[in-house]
Amino acid sequence: MVITLISLDGCKKKEADPVLVGSPGNPRFNLQFDNEENVDLDLYVTDPEGETLSYQNASSSSGGALDVDCKCNDCPNGPNENIFWPEDDSAPKGEYKVWVRYYGRCNASSNKISNFTVRVTNNKKVIDTYTGTLSTGKSTIWTYTKR
User: Three-state secondary structure along 115-147?
Assistant: First the structure.
């Protein structure tokens, strides 16, 4: 009798890319978070020209735009925020800064902690992923360089 052992270590299933809500772009910054019934998180991106996009400034002179904004359980697209530049590669080259700010609780008795993930994409491919947890203040400021 011959017994053959086969190793399947090299056959690990690759995780599917997450579904990102909002317009694609080059670059694109997408925020996904949990506990949206109880907290409001906001995505911020400063472009190489120094202009910051967020819910307070939804478009920039460099062509960037916020097209998805989730506000305290008013999230028709789920707990997502999305800032993007056109796919035609017209976005300015240079350093982009991205961070998440804890805007506030949705009601006085709510749980105020939220986990989040920010994904940076270019040509519809995720090139950077940042994660964290917020209950006040803002996250680390991460940098993406468009060449």
Answer: EEEEEEEECCEEEEEEEEEECCCECCCEEEEEC
